[in-house]
Design brief:
6% strand; 40% helix; mainly alpha; two-stranded parallel ribbon; globular; 2 strands; 137 residues
Length: 137
């Protein structure tokens, strides 16, 4: 874990996103291309990071709560449902969906290669909602 001092409270989640944004901005200023994969449930925290970076691409991994629970390798949703932990996104804490993400991947309906193709098309400058990339099956 990058920051084991942080938990599931809103303040902790906001701090996690702030730290990730700071680190991403610092690396980007040094010429590094940075990809950050994070659960960032609060719109305001994401907007704060967007303001720090010259180029910020928000990829909304849109998955139903049911899909998230099926993919839960850490057992966090099970623990939240059992009352063992609190502040789990979608169970007892909200998720504020992006209003206009650059890319939206509907991972309960798309395959991983389809979602990846959307992201790559955007990064390459093509419209995100076009068909398969040439040569792709």
């Amino acid at each position: 874990e990058l920051w084991p001092d942080l938990g599931f409270r809103k303040a902790d989640r906001d701090e996690n996103v702030r730290r990730l944004g700071y680190l991403a901005a610092m690396l980007a200023r040094s010429g590094v291309t940075v990809l950050v994969a994070a659960i960032s449930p609060y719109r305001e925290a994401r907007q704060n990071v967007r303001r720090q970076l010259t180029r910020f691409v928000e990829v909304y991994v849109n998955a139903s709560l049911e899909t998230c629970e099926q993919r839960d390798v850490k057992g966090l949703y099970r623990k939240a449902r059992a009352g063992e932990i609190r502040g789990v996104t979608g169970v007892d804490d909200p998720y504020e969906a992006p209003e206009s993400p650059e890319v939206e991947c509907r991972t309960g309906e798309e395959t991983v290669p389809e979602s990846l193709a959307k992201i790559l098309r955007f990064l390459e400058g093509a419209p995100a909602e076009t068909g398969p990339i040439e040569g792709e099956q």
